[in-house]
Amino acid sequence: MRANQVTEAEVRAVPVVPGTATWNPVPHNQVIDTVETAISRQGLGIVRKRFELTQDGANVFASYRLDQSRNGSSWEIGFRNSVAKKFAVGITAGTFTIVCSNLVFTGDFLEFRRHTKGLDLDELRAIANRALLGTISRLQSLEQWQEGLKAKPLPRRDMQCLTYEALQRGAFPGGRFSRFVEAYEDEASRHGQSLYSFHGALTQTIRDQSLNQISHRSRIINDLVETYRLPAPGGAIALPPAA
């Protein structure tokens, strides 16, 4: 799904699509207002917005950087909407690492609105508020998980095996292999040879892709790192089959 980076005004200008007896598309501008209201109710602020829109205007992907940061990383939430029956309104959690400008999402979207009839704006806001509460919980878990990666060493041989597995699973395009190697050396120089460095290098490698691609590849990256197990001396790394 090809999308181009646009302004918020361009997203808000997408015409409202009429619904049917069973399908009620939520306009993009209403999703933006609903998400921002939910953020405000949690006492959080927005410091940066990014929007991407498909050429026909039917599908929007957005990312908001929040004014909550720790250990060199900022909280980021992503959300999406479709007025073409592509997917339901959804929200996802993420972090943005300030030093390397790399963004990683949890990879999955918490669906907070199906495009069905019978839902007014007040109820939509209440649902979005509950969804954001769940997203904040996932943000906190994501931060703790990333911090835990720093304590997990990654021997050079295992890093090479994981890199091959990452390519096989589509964590990053093969044409960016050199970029990944450079990113890993940069991360390892600051954080040592660890799973955290490997994870950071992968997210650096895809940081200039679309929000939709980052979300998709983040899921692959997170699953790959999560399923890695330290080998016994002289043993092989343990990875389950790819999903």
Automatic annotation (TrEMBL):
State the source organism's domain of life. Answer: Bacteria
Record-given protein name: DUF932 domain-containing protein
What is the organism of origin for this protein? Answer: Desulfohalobium retbaense (strain ATCC 49708 / DSM 5692 / JCM 16813 / HR100)
